[in-house]
Amino acid sequence: MNDKVCDCCGKAAVNSIQIMTGANVPLNKTRRNYLPSLTNRNAIDEGVSPGRLEELPLCASCMRTVEDNFRATILYLKSENERLNIQEAG
Ligand SMILES: [Zn+2]
After folding, report:
1. Residue 17 C-alpha to ligand 1 middle, in angstroms?
2. N or C: which end of the chain has fewer CB within 10 A?
3. What distance in angstroms lies between residue 50's CA and the mean position of ligand 1's atoms?
4. Is 5 inside a domain boundary?
5. Does a structural domain hold residue 1?
6. Contact 49, 42 (CB under 8 A)
7. Where in the sequence is the domain holding 64, given as residue range(s)?
8. pTM as predicted
């Protein structure tokens, strides 16, 4: 992994995450990255999904930011949908 560079900032990549991308996206369009589920992985392995798995190299700092934002988004959605009992301080 040492020969790879972070896809986000260009520093040395020490981590990576797997993402799923759709097929047939024009080169001049920004691709949507999906978080692959086990069902997606199995469908790709079986050749019934047009998606494909890619390794996204990340440096430690950008990896941390991706993880923090994922965590924050999940907590935000749970809170907004009243699936967390978080109360504002008075
Ligand atoms: Zn980076």
Report:
1. 12
2. C
3. 29
4. no
5. no
6. no
7. 15-80
8. 0.78
Q: What is the pLDDT of residue 21?
A: 85
Ligand 1: distance of its center to the CA of 45 in Å? Answer: 30
**Within a domain: residue 56?**
yes
* Amino acid letter for position 82: E
* pLDDT value, residue 26: 75
- For 13-25, the pLDDT digits (tens) are 999 999 998 777 6
Residue 33's φ and ψ, nearest 5 degrees, are -100, 130
Question: Could you tell me the distance, in angstroms and rounded to a whole number, from the CA of residue 13 to the centre of ligand 1?
Answer: 7
Give the pLDDT confidence of 45-90 residue by residue, as tens digits: 999 988 889 999 999 999 999 999 999 999 999 989 988 877 778 8
Chain position carrying tokens 């560079």: 5
How far does the centroid of ligand 1 lie from the alpha carbon of residue 74, in Å? 22
Alpha carbon 4 to chain centroid distance?
Answer: 18
Place of tokens 């440096």: 59
